[in-house]
Amino acid sequence: MRVLSGIQPSGRLHIGNYFGAMRQHLKLQAEHECFYFIADYHALTSNPSPSEVARYSLDVTMDYLALGLDAEKTVFWRQSDTPEVTELTWLLSCVTPMGLLQRCVSFKDKVAQGLSPSHGLFAYPVLQAADILIYQSNLVPVGADQKQHIEVTRDIAVRFNNTFGEVFTIPEEHIIESVAIVPGTDGRKMSKSYGNTIEIFEPENSVKKKIMKIVTDSTPVEDPKDPDKCSVFALLKLLTSPEELAEWENRYRSGGMGYGEAKKRLAELMIEFFAPFRQKRAELENNMDHVKQVLADGAERARAVATKTLVQAREAVGLGG
Ligand code: ADP
Ligand code: TRP
Question: What beta strand segments (E) does 68-206 contain?
Fold first, then answer.
């Protein structure tokens, strides 16, 4: 079973990314052949500066390696190192009805958020389809927001196969059962675009400071509190044992506990949880040659598969005969 997913290098990875996606990506390595890549072509649709694209691609690579990506087993590369995918995008574009893309909500959402409505942003799902199909992927683990793009991919693959013969494996989506939405320091969904993130590898004292500043309500210390409405509790849930969580729940509901206490414990747990990975992350930072080598090896392995599919697709549509 080939599993494939892409990660946009649009900023430093945060706790929401870890519990919402990375942890599941890393787990899947034990049972499947995994293909994971840095979606840097996709990142260009939000017009980052050139230095940001380059820097964040390396940051994401180091984050994944530090957190347990096994580069011997898993193929990990930068999308733009396999430009074959852009040629396949064109072949797929020619069987993709405009209406299919016009129905995609992510384009409308991103334009509403202020991104410029470029052709790249509009055609983004076709590039994503090419990513998935060129590697003959069976399973695509993604967050619920990407479900529609996998449906578009399946639709395009079926059209292509019906018109030109069986070239592509039809992928299944595997919606990541997220531990629910991880809240940010302001109580909204943790997201780079809201500036409310706790990065996985930011300095420990900064993690502590951010946690102490998490927005809570103004219930007085002595009053009972509703754990289900508290971001601190939602984050504790990700990190404590069930027994300890039950104790905190009890303390919230009984009153007499200040949010500061829960925050302190959260900071402790968060720092403890990521400490072993932090060490590895620092080592990688001092060994960029190794990081770049991982990407180069990954690109070579990915390219072997991509080239094979592209040759079949070109032949199928009548090019280069
Ligand atoms: P951001 O919102 O910071 O830009 P992305 O959209 O790049 O994050 O998300 C990358 C992956 O991380 C997606 O699979 C997404 O579902 C997951 N993810 C991001 N933020 C959260 C969150 N707050 N809670 C759970 N999962 C999240
Ligand atoms: N669009 C995905 C996101 O924003 C990233 C991505 C690009 C992707 N290509 C992919 C995910 C292929 C899965 C498969 O998160």
Answer: 75-78, 139-142, 172-175
Report CA Rg, the chain. Answer: 22
Tell which wins on pLDDT, 307 or 145.
Answer: 307
179 phi and psi angles, rounded to 5 deg: -70, 35
Contacts of 17 (CB under 8 A, 6+ apart): 200
pLDDT of residue 25: 95
In this structure, the number of other CB atoms found within 10 A of the CB of residue 46 comes to 18
If you take atom 15 of ligand 2, which residue's CA is the nearest one? 7
First-last CA distance in the chain: 32
List, by residue number, the catalytic residues. 110, 189, 192
* Burial (Cβ within 10 Å: 0-12, 13-18, ≥19) of residue 209: middle
Domains of the chain, CATH where assigned: 2-181+288-317 (3.40.50.620), 192-282 (1.10.240.10)
Q: Is the pTM of this model over 0.90?
A: yes
pLDDT over threshold 70, residue 24: yes
Query: Does residue 193's CB lie within 6 angstroms of at least one atom of ligand 1?
Result: yes
Q: What is the structure's pLDDT at 1?
A: 92
Mean pLDDT, rounded, for 173-200: 87
φ/ψ of 209, rounded to 5, equals -60, -45
> Which two structure tokens, joined as six digits, stand for 257?
């506990």
- The tokens describing 69, both together, are 């990506």
Predicted confidence (pLDDT) at residue 70 exceeds the cutoff of 70 = yes
Cα distances (angstroms) measured from residue 49 to each of 43, 280, 284: 10, 28, 24
Is the C-alpha dihedral spanning 66, 289, 8, 144 positive or negative? negative
Can you give the pLDDT at residue 179? 62
Ligand 1 atom nearest to CA at 190: 23
Compute CA distances 141 → 65, 90, 97, 137, whole Å. 19, 24, 25, 11
Comparing 193 with 18, which gets the higher pLDDT?
18
Ligand of minimum distance to the alpha carbon of 16: 1
